[in-house]
Amino acid sequence: MTSGYAIVAVLIVALGTILVGAYGLRVSRTTSDFYVASRTVSPWWNASAIGGEYLSAASFVGIAGLIFAYGPDMLWFPVGYTAGYLVLLTMVAAPLRRSGAYTLPDFAEARFRSRVVRGVASVLALAIGWLYLLPQLEGAGLTLNTVTGAPDWVGALIVAVVVTVNVMSGGMRSITFVQAFQYWLKLTAITVPIVFLIVVWQVHGAESMTKPEYPQFRQDTKVTFSHQTTIHAERSIFINGTGEIDGLRIENAGHVLTDGYHRIGHGSEFTFPRGAPVPHVSTMAHNTNESWAQPESSGQRFPLYGVYSLIIATFLGTMGLPHVIVRFYTNPNGSAARRTTLIVLGLLSVFYLMPPLYGALGRLYTPELLMTGQTDAVVLVLPARMIDGIGGQLLGALVAGGAFAAFLSTSSGLVVSLAGVLSQDVLRLGGVRGFRISTVLAGIVPLAMTFVSTGMPVADMVGLAFAVAASSLCPLLMLGIWSSRITTIGAIAGMLAGGVPALTAGLVTMFTDTGDSWHTVLLSRPAAWTVPLGFSVMYVVSLLTRRHVPPGVQRTMVKLHAPENLGLDGSGSTTADERS
Amino acid sequence: MTTPPPQGGSAPKPTQRVVVTSPRTRAPRARRPYSGTREINEQSELGAVYMRTLIKAQRRLGLSVCLVVCTSLGLLPLLFTIEPDLGKAQVLGLGLPWFLLCVATFPMLLLAGWFYVRQAERSEREFAELVERP
């Protein structure tokens, strides 16, 4: 699907981001401007901004792709991404705001009064941020590949450059307005097309999506294989075209694709006949539409463990994401932080109604993606496939623009917070120069990682970042806020005991081929064992090292939990006298 | 306000005249010399008890909202495994898993969040009344 309109839409979004960044530079020149502005931000603006930063490539294209491929088990992604905010609201939102921390390392230092705890939290925040940036860049590559046919690395490079330059020049830096606008742009870009698509589906006779048949080609479909792909055909099909099958070169001729596994060469182009059942990429279970619509149809081993691990990672991981935490600082006080989070919950609920619809329609209209394995592209391909002519192309352009907005806004938020952590805690370079060097580093590392990763679905990769956050920074926040027994040694031990195994498991899954052995699921969905590990190590070690409770913990607790308007800032009795 | 202590002696003295004074200033006197805020700021035992009560109340509220929501959601995969027929049931034309996870969950999350915010703010108000009381 190459469409001029889509290219224009992507360009507009990229240029718009740069322009708004440059404009924002003039608006928010000094830190005090920024602070003053932040105090006047209403919960609605703030919540839209959080939504804008949070809805990433995984939400915009990834969830629909996973549901399209693996069925209702993947609905736990949107549910978990939203429920994560409920956990954040009930356990973290107000105390985190009251702690006065701007970043997670700030919170670690404010609560534990220890540079070491801060250091460990910084390194983990950095690792989580990079893990999270990687799928954004891969998603950008995929989008550009789908709409223009450009190689995968082009999109990743464009996003990395636009974001890095933008952040370096000072634009985009916590400009609430821009991020808030991004939420509404993304919501429009995903909602408007799906309304039209559903109307078209109704006009076509509202064909059932759960028939007991394999997905089949609706018309003669020409499919290009941009990578070497191993596919599995359920029945033999007569195909036509040019390319390589099982090492046999075919030049513009017919070929009978027998049932079973076949290796299709890179760059092959074949036309599959109308009505034939769609072969699947070999790593995907072959499901009829009826069995696809059932739980545990994903064909992975130990599906129940996988689902629970996913639930734990997404429910608890949200609070540990570096770019989400920053936004809480722009609330004037703890109660406003709570109200903001509640609104975020509502905004996300509306957005997440859409991706499953794309995934389900994809089973009927774009089944060939099950064969090429580019399931993440389903959101991008559907509009032009279902609606002929300029209408479909315009809707496709809208979706592509929205997807690009998603990559840009999430990546910007991440790069800003990572650069902050890098310049303050790792490189120890102050000033504008230090921040700029850190920004480049924050952008280059994930860009380099895109060249070596094994191309797993973007939502799965994001799931790994959540798992690391849930097993390291979540225990730090939850136990740090709600228990005064946690010691500095306990905090460090807990973060490492949960974070290091989760991170290792994530890297192993991303960069090596673990095959189909029994432990694969333990590595690709580590949260179910690393999260309890992190929590229990942190608590038990704290009980064993009681003498290392940080000094002044009672005052810190007052600061975290007491409403601001009572004059309980723990600074002595003067305030109380003034008030009495 | 004090009367001079009666002089020691067996014979009762004749009744004495006593001067009753009031503070010279017209400004009101400090109404709550030992309010809860001061107890907390001075880190007295009582102040610590106030704080512990607040933290405990908020922790219990947060954890119970979380547990109710997470348990009810967390039981779903188990239910679908134990009773696969549930996955085939239809609600409003949608399969039961789809209906529950795509449609029903989000309003429930919102409702739980709204309830939590209301309760948390109420317990903070009560805490404020408690510590500001003389």
TrEMBL record, chain A:
Transmembrane region(s): 6-25, 45-69, 75-96, 116-133, 153-171, 183-203, 305-329, 341-361, 394-422, 434-456, 462-482, 489-512, 527-545
UniProt entry tagged with the keyword Signal: no
Cellular location(s): Cell membrane
Keywords in alphabetical order: Cell membrane, Ion transport, Membrane, Sodium, Symport, Transmembrane, Transmembrane helix, Transport
Annotated membrane topology: Multi-pass membrane protein
Pfam family name, one: SSF
Main subcellular location of this protein, as a coarse class: membrane
Keyword Heme tagged: no
Entry similarity comment: Belongs to the sodium:solute symporter (SSF) (TC 2.A.21) family.
Protein name in the entry: Sodium:solute symporter family protein
TrEMBL record, chain B:
Keyword field contains Transmembrane helix: yes
Keywords: Membrane, Transmembrane, Transmembrane helix
Identification of the protein by name: DUF485 domain-containing protein
Transmembrane residue ranges: 61-82, 94-117
Region annotation (Disordered) ranges: 1-35
